[in-house]
Amino acid sequence: MIHIITAANAHQYSDTMEQVWRLRHDVFVVEKGWTDLARADFREIDQFDTQHAIHFLAMEGDRVVGYSRLLPTTRPHLLSDVMPQLCEGDLPRGPDTWEWTRQAVARSHRARGKAVNPVSIALLTGIVEWGLASGVRRLVLQMPTLYLLHVVQLHFRAQPLGLPQPISGEDILAATAEFDGRTLARLRGVRGDTASVLAPSTVRYLAA
Amino acid sequence: MTRKSLDQTLGFLRSLDRTASSGDVASLLMAELADLGVSHVMAGTVPVPGTPVRHHRNHVLINTFPMEWGKRYLSRGYAFHDPTVQRLGTGSSPFSWLDLKEGPLTTTSRRIMDEAADFRLSDGLTIPLQTLDGEIAGFSVSGDRLGIDPLDRGMLQLVATYAFGHLILLAGQGVAAPVRLAPREREALQWAAEGKTDWEIGEVMGISTHGVDFHLRSARAKLGTTNRTQAVAMALRRGLII
Hints:
B: alpha+beta; Arc Repressor Mutant, subunit A; 5-stranded antiparallel sheet; elongated
């Protein structure tokens, strides 16, 4: 199930968020070698983890097995403040546009053979479900160029914001990815499950 | 320089949306890439080892290479020995065929590259891709006088990726049963394409707004689309309305 955590319900998830900071440290610092993010307490938290960030957690029981973060583009975010060179024209900004960052899946939950593992698909399904319910219609992505085909195959309408640039040994592309009901149908088709991925407690919170 | 490349890429994406067959995509690619000296494109997924040679053609999404070469390539199962194919799984950066020839090659691999040269396919660039299902794939361009600047490679990567994604989509539609719209569904959709509201369509067709909604809903379902705009676009693409 996917749990959505914002400033409004974070107090109910404080132990769980500790798992998130550690998963992020494991994946981004230890595994990917983004040493700028290294922290002595092994909790990877950056300047964008404010009350405005929305955290998407893939959970199995009490365990966090996957994670994604959305940042509002109306405030400072990675494309605006850290990697502006990836965007050649105007920054895509607005209340309907959120930046998707820090996609991480626990090593134990990475399936072999498939390019995109089920936990990532579930997280993305949760993001699209949340977006469709919240008036959000596009994501800003920074990703290795190889992943662009997956975004297109998942029926997002992706537009490059610039040409791929080498960043720490990988060709990285910034793009916007618009989504609609068709995207959700496609994600559910790939999952083989038409039910919502959002945890009931999350849905109650969103409805409130 | 890069701004021009990005604009060119975005222009290509808009044109790609209007293509309805792999032949259309091929023509568009040739027009788009002519100034880089590209005269042939080929793209497809790599058959997993053990795939019978007779099935190899099912892995080809687009191929404008000389027909004789294509036949020879498929009938002899060259996909398993072609060094450009072997290189695909090992990295994500585009690579040049001339660079590949500089490196160590098996006798068979070298012979394939030499035979390709007989068909004036000596120089080329291959862009590695990977599908959602984890299949290794590639998109190659070739030409007698290929002039691809390193700065063009990013643009080519994007063009190749989008063309490939679109070709997968078209291939999927190809195997789907052809859509047959009832006369009233077709007529309602035609008026929707003209920008008319449900009420206006009802007036011209002499039926209630409710009836219009019924026909459009049914057309949407047949086309596998979720809204009016998408249904109109799909029907236009398939030539069901004009």
